[in-house]
Specification:
The protein is mainly α. It is built from three helices and no strands.
Length: 114
């Protein structure tokens, strides 16, 4: 069997309101858990308790997800700020090199003015 190789580049990941999406999903899982709690006996009689505990697990895993995506968002912002600062420093360095006609210290005519 031949090894499978991709025929095209993978698309860039979609970016959006990730923190809000995960937070909303976590709230939804907890809401479903709370809605099902009054019917705990009904679920137990039908051997369907996994419905209740799946919602609880989704809510608690969502809390981990919120922590993760907030950290990811902060890291992306830090990376963008560092990249922007490096770009500004690079442009300033290029402009200083290209526009500088000052020969530097020790050249003729650079002594103190009287």
């Amino acid at each position: 069997m031949a090894k499978w190789t991709a025929k095209h580049e993978a698309p860039e990941p979609l970016e959006g309101p990730v923190v809000a999406t995960v937070t909303g999903g976590t709230i939804l899982w907890f809401a479903l858990f709370l809605v099902q709690l009054p019917f705990y006996g009904w679920f137990a009689d039908r051997d369907q308790l996994w419905w209740v505990w799946t919602c609880a697990a989704g809510g608690f895993l969502g809390l981990i997800g919120i922590w993760y995506v907030r950290g990811r968002e902060a890291a992306l912002k830090r990376h963008a700020a560092v990249a922007a600062q490096a770009e500004r420093d690079g442009q300033a360095g290029q402009a200083g090199q290209a526009g500088s006609a000052d020969p530097g210290p020790g050249s003729a005519g650079s002594g103190p003015q009287a």
